[in-house]
């Protein structure tokens, strides 16, 4: 299928299930209902306002001209975005390396941003109140600006807050005198890529946002019809595969290959939009896919590949169109799977943040009490559930593989400063377990995909990795440092996963540099 330079190519069993699903969508009137923004599809009249963003956000970009001119005049050429979740990932995909994102407690990323303090504008983005991490980063930047000699008025001018009308952060920003940009509170966070959450930081970082919005607007006419509708076909592929194929197996693990910033955004969009009521689609990187033929519940999508490779489906489209196509496809896939992709899920994020806040309060100025590890090997402390009990790292890897259900997966979540992530462990663990392996950095990864893990098929086993912080920073006005906050956030996520009956092994690296190497070697040798 080709429309104005946009191509969707699929084949094999995926093609058959996709065509059946597309015919069912058309016969049920779903494309027409979406085009008319008919609330009867899901019963939420305001949930479809994301379809208007290519037009409405254009006005927003024009209004930013004055702020951009002021930034250039003041020599502010670095934009730091403090934000967690799909909104921040959309901005990253638009702005590439022109935007610095602080989405957790990574002291390495913070130090790089602090090195250009005199040239920095800080954007604080959240649909709700200020997260614990957001508050910590904000305090650190405020104090650094103060130490740099800026007046309180000048400090307020270095912050821009993006939030919903009437949110707790709205009132907080006004109280602090920060610049403020407000958005529609009915817009789901995972469908807000082209709203102020994604557009404003990218625009201030000099990304060609108007060009992206033109690309998004250009694909809209195709999304209103039934013929040559790329979003409809992609949604039929996603939903049709996740429901069943000819053998009766749901292909609900989606291997995404493409630009990492874009695939990370797609991962959180699809996982959040479909992960509920025991159902869902789990995207993962190619590094976490077992060898060919090992998993019949996996299908692969290549985004803008150079040629037609071995992926089941290939999608070619410019970046602005990708945002619209994937949002449309996620909505369609959710409908096929019997879930409402816009339905507010149980607030797992707020629960874990509250738990982390309680742990920080209880610890005060003292250490966080974590209990005794099950064992320590090569400077790696291991804390595991009874179902994952073992005596050494090799044995732990064995019981982890045995604990993964036949249709399940392993998820690696790292809370570490610097470059080490689950991508170094995923290939070996995928080969060893024969099951898909997902990975991401906390708390952002679970912030965006936690609804899938806790409310979807619930087939995950989790490996959480923390480490001592080599270059720590105290949080001004708080009795803790970033390192302590990082540890507590990881513990809160571990506790949240366990409270939902999900098996978790927590590894703490006493020396993160040496420990990362030893852990990687242990996984390869196990």
Instruction: State the CATH class of the largest domain.
Output: Alpha Beta
- Uncertain runs are none
Number of domains: 3
Task: Using the coordinates shown, work out and report the CATH topology of the largest domain.
Answer: Rossmann fold
Largest sheet: 6 strands, mixed
Distance between the termini: 46 Å
CATH superfamily annotation of the largest domain: Glucose-6-phosphate isomerase like protein, domain 1
Report strand %: 15-25%
Question: Quick recap of the structure?
Answer:
The chain has 526 residues and is α/β, with parallel strands linked by helices. The chain has 20 helices and 17 strands. The strands form three sheets. Strands 1-2-11-10-8-9 form a six-stranded mixed β-sheet. Strands 12-13-17-16-14-15 form a six-stranded mixed β-sheet, with helices on both faces. Strands 4-3-5-6-7 form a five-stranded parallel β-sheet, with helices on both faces.
Please characterize this protein's 3D structure.
Helices cover 45% and strands 16% of the residues. With 526 residues, the chain is α/β, with parallel strands linked by helices. It has 3 domains: 2-41 and 226-337, Glucose-6-phosphate isomerase like protein, domain 1 (Rossmann fold, 3-Layer(aba) Sandwich), CATH 3.40.50; 51-215, Glucose-6-phosphate isomerase like protein, domain 1 (Rossmann fold, 3-Layer(aba) Sandwich), CATH 3.40.50.10490; 348-525, Glucose-6-phosphate isomerase like protein, domain 1 (Rossmann fold, 3-Layer(aba) Sandwich), CATH 3.40.50.10490. Strands 1-2-11-10-8-9 form a 6-stranded mixed β-sheet. The chain has a 6-stranded mixed β-sheet with strand order 12-13-17-16-14-15, with helices on both faces. A 5-stranded parallel β-sheet has the order 4-3-5-6-7, with helices on both faces.
């Amino acid at each position: 299928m080709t429309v104005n330079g946009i191509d969707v190519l699929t084949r094999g069993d995926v093609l058959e299930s996709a065509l059946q699903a597309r015919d069912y969508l058309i016969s049920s009137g779903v494309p027409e209902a979406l085009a008319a923004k008919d609330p009867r599809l899901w019963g939420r009249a305001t949930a479809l306002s994301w379809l208007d963003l290519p037009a409405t956000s254009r006005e927003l970009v024009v209004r930013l001209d004055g702020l951009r001119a002021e930034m250039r005049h003041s020599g502010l050429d670095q934009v730091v975005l403090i934000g967690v979740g799909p909104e921040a990932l959309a901005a990253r995909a638009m702005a590439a390396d022109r935007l610095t994102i602080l989405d957790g407690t990574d002291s390495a990323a913070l130090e790089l941003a602090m090195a250009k303090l005199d040239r920095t504008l800080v954007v604080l983005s959240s649909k709700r109140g200020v997260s614990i991490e957001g508050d910590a980063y904000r305090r650190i930047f405020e104090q650094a600006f103060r130490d740099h000699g800026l007046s309180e008025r000048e400090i307020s001018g270095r912050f821009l807050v993006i939030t919903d009308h009437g949110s707790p952060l709205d009132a907080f920003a006004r109280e602090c005198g920060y610049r403020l940009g407000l958005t529609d509170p009915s817009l789901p966070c995972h469908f807000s890529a082209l709203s102020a959450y994604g557009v404003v930081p990218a625009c201030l970082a000099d990304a060609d946002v108007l060009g992206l919005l033109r690309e998004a607007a250009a694909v809209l006419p195709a999304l209103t019809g039934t013929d040559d509708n790329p979003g409809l076909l992609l949604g039929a592929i996603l939903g049709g595969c996740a429901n069943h194929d000819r053998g009766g197996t749901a292909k609900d693990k989606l291997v995404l290959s493409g630009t990492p910033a874009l695939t990370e955004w797609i991962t959180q969009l699809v996982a959040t939009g479909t992960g509920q009521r025991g159902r869902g689609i789990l995207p993962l990187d190619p590094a976490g896919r077992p060898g060919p033929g090992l998993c019949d519940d996996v299908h692969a999508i290549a985004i803008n590949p150079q040629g037609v490779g071995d992926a089941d489906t290939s999608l070619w489209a410019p970046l602005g169109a990708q945002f619209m196509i994937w949002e449309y496809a996620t909505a369609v896939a959710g409908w096929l799977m019997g879930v409402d992709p816009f339905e507010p899920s149980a607030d797992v994020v707020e629960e874990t943040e509250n738990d982390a806040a309680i742990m920080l309060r209880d610890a005060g100025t003292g250490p966080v009490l974590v209990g005794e590890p099950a064992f320590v090997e090569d400077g790696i402390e291991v804390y595991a559930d009874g179902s994952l009990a073992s005596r050494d790292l090799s044995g732990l890897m064995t019981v982890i593989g045995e604990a993964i259900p036949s249709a399940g997966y392993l998820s690696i979540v790292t809370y570490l400063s610097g470059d080490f992530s689950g991508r170094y462990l995923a290939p070996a663990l995928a080969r060893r377990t024969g099951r898909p392996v997902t990975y991401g950095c906390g708390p952002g990864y679970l912030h965006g995909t936690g609804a899938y893990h806790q409310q979807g098929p619930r087939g995950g086993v989790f490996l959480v990795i923390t480490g001592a912080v080599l270059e720590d920073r105290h949080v001004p006005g708080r009795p803790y440092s970033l390192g302590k906050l990082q540890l507590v956030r990881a513990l809160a996520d571990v506790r949240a996963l366990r409270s939902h009956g999900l098996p978790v092994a927590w590894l703490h690296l006493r020396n993160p540099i040496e420990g990362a190497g030893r852990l990687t070697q242990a996984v390869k040798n196990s």
